[in-house]
Amino acid sequence: MRVLHIAYQQLRRYGKTRVSWAQKLTFGLIKNDHYTQVFSDRDVAAFEAPLGIRDFGKKAANKRLLEMVSAVEPDLVIAGHCDIITNETLLEIKRLLPNCAIIHCNNDPLFVPDNVERIKHRANVTDAVFVSTGRRELSMFEGLGARVYHMPNPVDPSVESLDNSVKTDLPIDLLFCSNSANFTSRLEMIGRFKESLADEMNFKTYGSFGESPVWGRDYDRALLNTKMGLNLNRQEGHYWYSSARMAQLAGNGILQFTHDDLRFDELLPQESAVYFKNEDDLLSKIREFHHDDEKRQAWAKNARDFFQTEMNSKLYAQYILEAALQIPFSHEYAWAQDINLDGSMK
Prior knowledge:
This protein is of the alpha/beta class. The chain contains 11 helices and 11 strands. Helix 8 (about 245-250) links the parallel strand 9 (about 225-230) and strand 10.
């Protein structure tokens, strides 16, 4: 298949990038032998704009996308987080290529009101939408025109290349990285943990409490040295929703702690992620695994094996392509056991 993937490629960061689910999707498509081109809407808008002022280049970016569509003639257009590209442009792609499927992939949480509206907006003009919250919470997007699917956060072996589950001499006992304070109060709990655990373990909180955030290779080095990580969303409680942090920790063999309300026990194998109910429960379990390194290693290995085998970028990309083009599923995707090919719930 020929695929055009519209997603921010972070070109102007010149290598000091964040881990990107969109990049993993591109990697997976290519590994599955699909001809894949990418279009970075934010970068193109900046490159095309006078003085590099991105907002002045939005119209030009939409024009350039249509030029690329004409040149590539894709079978599938994936519109990720690309707000610069208008629905009118997507409709024009459909007019130019009536047999081309157009989908929207959205990896942001539903507790952000603007994101809910963004998904609804795209559902009006696309064939399908894929959202990183579990399918049973996506009924609000049904009936708008697009089929509705859940998609997970994948790992890619070229990105999640560590295996800390086999290591014992790791200097960071516990890790939490974040620089976002919107729609959340999680740092209040983290602050209490910093105080409680100060004399017991090395707890690094890059991006908070005076510790600089880490990107690119600096983030890789932080993971390289870590035993356990906190997988804390800005808000908890949405079924199967987690930031990409879950895949980054699990895929690298780092034991993760995640909230029980997310019900990942219905997706992940037993003794892989550590689930907690409240702050006291979490603190107790952190201490338990800190003092039982053999148990930490065993659980982290179970999670890593599952993510690398069943939640990898190749399966992720093939699932999205098959659902988008209505090709019968070629694999029993772990995250889609409750989803029919047409996106409906089983």
